[in-house]
Design brief:
With 715 residues, this protein is α+β, with helices and mostly antiparallel strands. It has helices at 2-17, 20-23, 60-63, 72-79, 83-96, 113-122, 166-173, 179-189, 192-208, 223-240, 248-267, 276-291, 298-315, 328-347, 363-372, 392-405, 410-416, 494-500; strands at residues 429-432, 437-441, 450-454, 471-476, 479-480, 508-510, 523-529, 533-540, 547-555, 559-567, 573-579, 593-596, 603-608, 615-622, 629-640, 643-655, 662-671, 678-682, 697-704, 707-714. It is built from 18 helices and 20 strands. The longest helix has 20 residues, at 248-267.
Length: 715
């Protein structure tokens, strides 16, 4: 090509120098004389007739392998230079090929009321997000914010007034999460408006945010935004491919977009590679590779995806099966992603290259979800989890998926069938010591009392893990008595920090301070059983000069005793705080708990006053009295982003001597209405040696209306 260009340049220069009278001389243009032929460069392709693409993106024909089986009609149209016809033949091929999305059943015309509402509101650019809405609309469903600007155009940059976490809101809008609902609504109703809305919004988005040619940046082309859009497209296309609204021109644009978005994703992997976001990107790559083998890069994508999925089986989970970000909700999502990938591969006969032990390596992860959910199939607000998202139906659906993977596990079957089949578990204590989760329950019935001790090992300060080592949560008969405070907002700042603060949890602190970076190093010390109690012991080097050891006793499967010891060289105030229950509907609020001021005897406590008789009494006792103070107030609970309600808390403080330990005993006792006479004390120190820490263990006694219980552990 360079040689030809050089020749043309030379000829142009020569003609520019020919005198006018010579240029068209009779000698040079005698009638009937054949003009001298230009020498042809054998390495230069001959010019071809121009192709009229009629709005079809030309790159489509570079990216798709039209020699693939099934694309003969499209290839024939290409040879006829009918690019519109070729693209239409490609669309027709997508309608009938044997590649499937196993999560979609085109014969199922059902759509839920909530899904239909999401689809309908999106027609007005009122876009669904997971975490944000304006309350309940006239149809009884969530009402979403208007995302139009003053000119009636979609505003992709600004969050509407009324959204507090604007950064997270914009991220969720850029994921286009309402579109699969619109595709499902089209399948259910045949209403072309849903398809036209999808096309219009995609056009708006791609005009404003075209795919970068290399590495992506900013909100549109980083993180979950890329992967969720690519996964959503797999849930949209099967529903709309037969729509008369879908033109060859639009389909060609979307297929080029899909290719380029996958290449952008491969250039913009999220870090760290062990995060849930990274694995979502891996899922997007391999599922698109399976769904679109027609791309010339399809096999390359699949090979990369297989390699990444194999390594992610180890990278995503700790040895005890818990996802490494230590958040139950993200754990749930990552397990679901692994399942979805496997189902996608099996449905399309592409699972042969998966690791042989792919399923087996997920078993501990599935068991963790069975163990950590409360008896009503909900879970706690630990870390960035939101209890409002953990409905019984959702949990049971996930447990059924797990049970299908491990049909030989009778306990998973029992849990997944709402206690109607399989084998009821018998273990009352479940331990995940690498990650730091421990469950102590009186039984497995639907109303059984259950306490969760959370003492995470998080040396990398994973974003979704709060610095709350040693905290506990308590549940009985459908009520959370020591609920975790939750997250309220994802945006880093004072509000997020206040919810995550160590003192906003049910644990021990030094002068109410939050654990420093690198101090979440929860350690499992022991689990011991006797005829009358179970005890789990853990500790955490919370402040460098102060280590927190916590022992949780479950006594006679009827109440809990928590022994806290702060030991080390610190000379400072040491606190234990208990954030109590509240009615989430607001009818009781912080009034659900009544403070019991026992400070005259160097103790403190509270009890709940629910009229249904499902209540708890709390009592905290101190071994030493130096600097003893007790206080109470209100703190926040957030079960959902941007939502919060208040509840009571109380805090007991001692001044720790540098040579001594700060030691507390807290009794959590279920009651109906009347509070019994509760007493507790340490029995391992003699008068004058109070505050001595014993590394090998401790002994205490607890009295309930005169009935004594001797409790101890020994390391």
């Amino acid at each position: 090509m360079k040689k030809r260009l050089f020749l043309l340049m030379m000829l142009t220069g020569m003609y520019a120098c020919i005198p006018a009278e010579t240029e068209f001389s009779k000698e040079a243009n005698r009638p009937g004389q054949k003009p001298e032929e230009e020498e042809v460069d054998p390495d230069d392709p001959l010019p071809t007739d121009p192709v009229d693409y009629q709005g079809i993106e030309p790159r489509l024909f570079e990216l798709i392998n039209f020699d693939a089986p099934g694309l003969e009609a499209a290839k024939a149209q290409i040879e006829q230079k009918d690019m519109v016809g070729a693209t239409q033949a490609l669309i027709d091929y997508f309608k009938t090929r044997d590649i499937v999305n196993p999560g979609i059943d085109l014969a199922d015309k059902y759509i839920s009321a909530s899904g239909k509402s999401i689809a309908d509101q999106a027609l007005q650019h009122r876009f669904y997000t997971i975490s944000y809405d304006q309350g309940t609309g006239e149809d009884g469903q969530r009402a979403f914010f208007d995302n139009n600007d003053a000119n009636g155009q979609i505003d992709w940059v600004n969050a509407p007034a009324g959204v507090s976490d604007k950064t997270e809101y914009i991220k969720q809008i850029h994921r286009l999460m309402w579109m699969p609902y619109q595709a499902q609504a089209y399948n259910a109703t045949g209403d072309e408006r849903y398809v036209q809305s999808i096309m219009e919004v995609y056009d708006s988005y791609l005009e404003k945010y075209p795919v970068p040619s290399g590495k992506g940046s900013g909100t549109p082309w980083t993180g979950l935004q890329i992967s969720v859009r690519l996964l959503n497209w797999l849930d949209i296309l099967p529903y709309i491919v037969s729509s008369p609204s879908v033109t060859p021109q639009w389909m060609a644009k979307m297929l080029v977009f899909t290719h380029d978005a996958l290449e952008c994703l491969r250039n913009t992997w999220y870090t760290p590679s062990s995060s849930n976001i990274y694995f979502s990107q891996v899922q997007a790559l391999i599922e698109n590779a399976i769904f679109f083998p027609e791309y010339k890069k399809g096999q390359e994508w699949f090979d990369d995806g297989i390699s990444l999925v194999s390594s992610q089986l180890s990278d995503q989970f700790n040895e005890d099966g818990v996802q490494n970000e230590l958040d139950p909700s993200y754990h749930l999502g990552v397990v679901a992603n692994f399942q979805a990938i496997q189902e996608f591969a099996v449905a399309n006969k592409r699972s042969g290259q998966f690791p042989d032990d792919y399923t087996d390596r997920l078993k501990g992860s599935c068991r963790f979800m069975m163990d950590i959910v409360y008896p009503d199939y909900t879970f706690e607000n630990f870390n960035d989890s939101r209890s409002s998202h953990s409905s019984k139906n959702v949990t049971l659906r996930n447990l059924r998926n797990y049970s299908a993977m491990f049909p030989e596990d009778g306990e998973l079957l029992w849990a997944s069938t709402d206690r109607t089949q399989g084998t009821e578990p018998t273990s009352l204590v479940q331990k995940y010591p690498v990650s730091g989760y421990y469950m102590l329950r009186e039984g497995w019935s639907s109303s059984a009392m259950m306490l969760i001790l959370k003492n995470n090992y998080n040396p990398t300060n994973a974003w979704h893990c709060q610095p709350d080592n040693g905290t506990v949560a308590l549940w009985k008969k459908g009520r959370r008595f020591l609920p975790d405070g939750g997250v309220f907002t994802y945006t880093n700042g004072s509000t997020r920090n206040s919810f995550a603060a160590t003192a906003n949890h049910n644990t021990l602190t030094k002068n109410k301070g939050t654990l420093a970076s690198g101090a979440m190093l929860g350690k499992f010390l022991a689990h011991q059983s006797t005829d009358s109690y179970e005890v789990v012991v853990t500790e955490n080097p919370s402040y460098g000069d102060l280590t927190h050891r916590r022992a949780v006793f479950m006594v006679n499967k009827s109440f809990y005793v928590i022994v806290d010891e702060g030991y080390g060289k610190a000379a400072a105030p040491v606190n234990v705080q208990w954030h109590l229950s509240a009615d989430t509907k607001g009818s009781l609020g912080e009034a659900a708990s009544v403070i019991d001021d026992l400070s005259a005897s160097h103790a403190y406590g509270a009890h709940t006053v629910y009229t249904d008789g499902n209540n708890f009494a709390y009592r905290t006792f101190c071994e030493t009295t130096d600097g003893f103070t007790a206080e109470n107030g209100t703190s926040w609970v957030s079960d959902e982003i941007d939502e919060r309600y208040s509840r009571r808390f109380y805090r007991v403080t001692l001044t720790k001597d540098a040579e001594k330990a700060a030691r507390f005993i807290t009794v959590l006792y279920p009651i109906t209405a009347e509070v019994p006479d509760i007493k507790a004390s340490f029995t391992d120190n003699t008068p004058g040696t109070e505050g001595t820490f014993h590394p090998e263990g401790c002994t205490v006694k607890v009295s309930i209306d005169g009935s004594e219980h001797a409790l101890s552990y020994k390391l």
